[in-house]
Amino acid sequence: MLAIAGWSLTACDESHDDWTQPTVYSQEGEVIIDGFSATPQTTGTLAAPIDLGTMTDGSSIKLFDFKQGSLPEGVTLENIRLEAKPADQPTAEAAKVAASTEGEVTKEELAKLVYTFYGKKATVRTFEAALYANAVKGSEAQLITLGDPFKLYLKPEKLEDPYYYVYGRSTATSTDDAYKFVMTPVEDNDMAYTYTTMYTGVGGDLLIWNISYWTNDRANKDFSKVYAQGTPDSDKTSGTVVQGPEEGKNTPTYFNAPQKNKFFTFTIDLERLTYSWTLLENQPSYTNISLIGVNGNWNDGDDIDLAAVDRSKHNWYLRYTFAADTQLKFRANHAWDTNWGFGNDADGEWNASNDWAKICAKGAKNIAITAGTYDIYFCDITGAAHFVPVE
Prior knowledge:
- By secondary structure, the protein is mainly β.
- It is built from 2 helices and 31 strands.
């Protein structure tokens, strides 16, 4: 029978998560027990990045070989886990990643590790990791070291789709119409998005969601895929982002504008998991925003109107089927005084069928559209235009 050196224990609840529970005694330093070890597969699985996009949901991958020795009577080995933190964040607190006695870790645990420190860009992340367990006797536990530290390389799976939407008081619409409020991707940052309008500044301005949430999870009140405010009211103009409700809550914390009834551009960065608000001056308003030029019809009276969808009537939407390839522009109030296009060199520089979102400029060239059905979005404050194909 083996003895455990320095057996002086910390209090532990029934789950034995002693690292998160209040302790009766100070945490003991980690110890090593003869006969127990975990050898990372540094020449196999861990030698190259683990691509989470190639793993199926619920599957596991073997990261280490575990050797289990003998324990004194009444003592069990529990909470076998990795403790890992980013190699480029040496002062960060390590996150816990559950593992099995077979040395396996699930895709979901590895994904959670990445998202604890980074956003969802499909970039390889390097972690410094070590293997631990708890020797548990009754309500007491001792931290046990299982092996030498090692590096873990993880690549998150690519986002399912590039379309993110806002929902809340700022849109003032029913849930059935929530797809009418698409965000604009930030140029040169495929993980950042914006939405510009007049915000209420009162509880519940917006949450961020994607199609998979709205079609699959909303009916079950599953908010795990919704992006929300991470630290409420810590800074009215910027802060952190979390996915899903905070621990202990059933619903997420909405983002709220710093001032009431003012124009803001809201920006969320899913790479850095941050958000910010940019205040804008008062904006001109228009009675109509329309498409002109469809099927070669450029005359007054040929306008195809979009519908104003947000409470301040600066974001517009239309689902439309183009029977043939065409060119068009956006214009305000059915007149040429204010019109928007894209490009300065030649008509058709932006083929919206291949590149779904751009910032249009007043008086610029025509936009080329390939035949098909699209959800069309336009913001008359920023000139952001979207042609999202409808399958």
